[in-house]
Automatic annotation (TrEMBL), chain A:
It comes from Loktanella salsilacus. This is Peptide/nickel transport system ATP-binding protein. Gene3D superfamilies: P-loop containing nucleotide triphosphate hydrolases. Residues 5-254 form the ABC transporter domain. Pfam families: ABC_tran, oligo_HPY.
From TrEMBL, chain B:
It catalyses: glutathione(out) + ATP + H2O = glutathione(in) + ADP + phosphate + H(+). This is Glutathione import ATP-binding protein GsiA. Part of the ABC transporter complex GsiABCD involved in glutathione import. Responsible for energy coupling to the transport system. It is a peripheral membrane protein. The lineage of its organism: Bacteria, Pseudomonadati, Pseudomonadota, Alphaproteobacteria, Rhodobacterales.
Length: 323, 347
């Protein structure tokens, strides 16, 4: 298999005022040209997974275990110049808030040009031409004029496009997208999703797309990994997850999406709240909220049970149904 | 003391006009914000809300949708007097604000819950004190106000014995939003404005809070104005929907009817921007191009004509009237107005 990214048993622990076990054994592989969505609620470890892929977590307070291989290279061992060359041409990231990701004191064109000059050694005129080309590719209207715009002169949707242009300027093989459409209006969100889908196909890159919105995952992803309390509870193609959710948490999330919910009906809300993760989970982390939990669920962590290629569920109910 | 009693036991403002009289009537409601420009530059204003009419019936839930900057939140803030009214009238149960009714009295009848659950709570007050604060300021004795607070904590699903003494930072987002709802209800309002109140919550928690809102509406006989960008949520909770664009109302109608058939092209675009939830039928065409225009200098005629796929020349010159399609379903679009001249251009 030509997996581009291979994450194996990744654990992340933050220390400080209180310890947080943010990731507790995450394994995930992403093929070349594949779009994988990490779906989960806040605190489930989606963003931490992305950030560890780029070594963006604060070094002093973070303890990382497990392995991340990018095209056979060990990402967690990269340092200094090697790491700088890895970020950009190999892996790029886009964020939820473009106004924090873009530099407010440089024009958009300058920021894109600087990136390609640094990474590809282009001359300034060539880099400027690349910047213009990128703005055209993300379909910013009148791109020549926009090159000299500062981030604050653009609307939210436009800034998001500019950030995508910046991230893709060096033609990365993997794009990490951390809720890039969450802060946008629904109409603009759909524009940006369609753009990302198009660019992904054009450039043939792999994408890991973090979202809490199952509807967004449907629009963009080939495969979905559902996360809960720093673990992956279910993976499958988007169609499998939507049409045949197996894990009780996935089922709850789908019900809470309210798609087609009728007025006045009572919602099947998942009771309670996610665990705080001050201790690493020793049992199924979802068991306290699970409507079908049994004694065994509180005793040990459920294994990830494979249900065919790319399909797995971390629930002991699945083990029984196999027997 | 008898005056205080009315706040605690019954709605502070008793029903006056009977069930047929709308709880809120807004007439030509306008809110313009001045923009600072140079000394010689002509004075400009942001037309945040530009002459809108609407009513909210007693006991109903009015959902308000539209893109950011369309004036949803400003409309809500006008209703509770958080921003100054530039023009038009607000009539609460037959009494006009600033004529028959003071702002202070209006705020007993109208309360609001905001999106940011943390920013809207005082970090130095326990949640019990927070909920008791409103009644106390309005003259309810301390002990009684605390009793109200404990009763409300129980109703919003936070056990008073465990939670009463906690501070906002000791609660989760969902719990804090419950406190905000409790705080708003402590004044026994008749209208509760929920401005993106569940938008920041995780999906599983959002469903819990929506269930709670439904229970409270029944128990307290409440009327809701529910602002959200999530059309699934709005459909679930609303009786009627009001769609806004650039400070104007473009369509109002029964929520379920609007969900199935939208009369205004903008409403149609909003609904088609909802993710399909079917991986085999993904959205292929973006519902709308670009962003909304600048409300400082809105387009002439129909404000939507710059982005409308069906726009014709009449749309850029003539402002559309509100046309009634069915009972309670109104739309401001030339497409539905035979007198507008839209069809003639087509011929």
């Amino acid at each position: 298999m030509s997996a581009l990214v291979e994450i194996e048993d990744l654990t992340v622990r933050f220390s400080g005022e209180r310890t947080v076990h943010a990731l507790n054994g995450v394994s995930l592989s992403v093929e070349k040209g594949e779009v994988v969505a990490l779906l989960g609620e806040s605190g489930s470890g989606k963003s931490v997974t992305l950030k560890s892929l780029m070594q963006l977590l604060p070094g002093k307070r973070t303890k990382i275990g497990g392995k991340i291989a990018f095209d056979g290279r060990d990402v967690l061992k990269l340092k200094g110049r090697e790491l700088a060359n890895f970020r950009g041409p190999e892996v790029a990231m886009i964020f939820q808030d473009p106004s924090l990701a873009l530099d407010p004191v440089y024009a958009i064109g300058t920021q894109i040009a600087e990136t390609v000059m640094r990474h590809e050694g282009l001359s300034r005129p060539d880099a400027n031409a690349r910047a213009l080309d990128m703005l055209k590719r993300v379909r910013i209207p009148s791109p020549e004029r926009r090159l000299s715009n500062y981030p604050h002169e653009m609307s939210g949707g436009m800034r998001q496009r500019a950030m995508i242009a910046l991230a893709l300027a060096c033609g990365p093989r993997l794009l990490l997208a951390d809720e890039p459409t969450t802060a946008l209006d629904a109409t603009v969100q759909m524009q940006v999703l369609l753009l990302l889908r198009e660019l992904q196909q054009e450039m043939g890159m792999s994408v890991i797309f973090v979202t809490h919105d199952i509807g967004v995952a449907v629009e963009i992803a080939d495969r979905v990994a559902v996360m809960y309390a720093g673990t992956i509870v279910e993976t499958g193609t988007i169609a499998e997850i939507i049409k045949d959710p197996r894990h009780p948490y996935t089922k709850g999330l789908l019900a809470a999406n309210l798609h087609g919910a009728v007025k006045g009906a009572r919602l099947d809300a998942i009771p309670g709240a996610p665990p705080t993760l001050e201790e690493p989970p020793t049992s199924c982390p979802f068991a306290p909220r699970c409507p079908v939990a049994m004694a065994a669920c509180h005793a040990a962590r459920p294994p990830l049970i494979s249900k065919g290629p790319g399909r797995a569920v971390a629930c002991i109910l699945e083990a029984e149904s196999v027997l | 003391m008898s005056a205080n009693k009315t706040i605690t036991t019954a709605p502070s403002l008793a029903d006056i006009g009977g069930p047929r009289q709308p709880l809120i009537t807004a007439k030509d409601l306008t809110c313009h914000f001045p923009v600072r420009a140079g000394i010689l530059a002509p004075k400009k204003v942001v037309r945040a809300v530009d002459g809108i009419d609407f009513t909210i019936a007693k006991g109903e839930t009015l959902g308000v949708v539209g893109e950011s900057g369309c004036g949803k939140s400003t409309t809500a803030r006008l209703l509770i007097g958080l921003v100054p009214i530039t023009g038009g009238k607000i009539i609460y149960d037959g009494q006009e604000l600033n004529a028959d009714l003071s702002l202070r009295d209006l705020r007993r009848g109208v309360q609001m819950v905001f999106q940011d659950s943390f920013a809207s709570l005082n970090p130095r007050m326990t949640i019990e004190e927070t909920i008791a604060f409103g009644p106390k300021v309005n003259g309810v004795p301390q002990a009684e106000a605390l009793a109200i607070a404990r009763d409300l904590l129980d109703r919003i699903g936070l056990d008073p014995a465990r939670f009463a003494g906690r501070y906002p930072h000791e609660l989760s987002g969902g719990q804090r939003q419950r406190v905000n709802i409790g705080r708003a209800l402590a004044m026994r309002p008749r209208l509760l404005i929920l401005d993106e109140a569940v938008s920041a919550l995780d999906k599983s928690v959002e469903a819990q809070v929506l269930n709670l809102l439904e229970d409270l509406r029944r128990d307290f006989d409440l009327t809701y104005m529910f602002i959200s960008h999530d059309l699934n949520v709005v459909r679930f909770i609303s009786d009627r929907l009001m769609v806004m664009y650039l400070g104007e109302v473009v369509e109002v109608g029964p929520a379920e009817a609007l969900y199935h058939k939208q009369a205004h092209p903008y409403t149609a675009a909003l609904f088609s921007a909802m993710p399909s939830m079917d991986p085999d039928a993904r959205t292929q065409v973006p519902p709308l191009a670009g962003d909304p225009p600048n409300p400082i200098d809105p387009p002439s005629g129909c404000r939507f004509h710059t982005r409308c796929p069906l726009a014709k020349s009449v749309c850029s010159s003539l402002k559309p009237r509100a046309i009634t399609l069915n009972e309670g379903h109104q739309v401001a679009c030339h497409l539905h107005d035979p007198a507008s001249g839209y069809e003639e251009v087509a011929a």
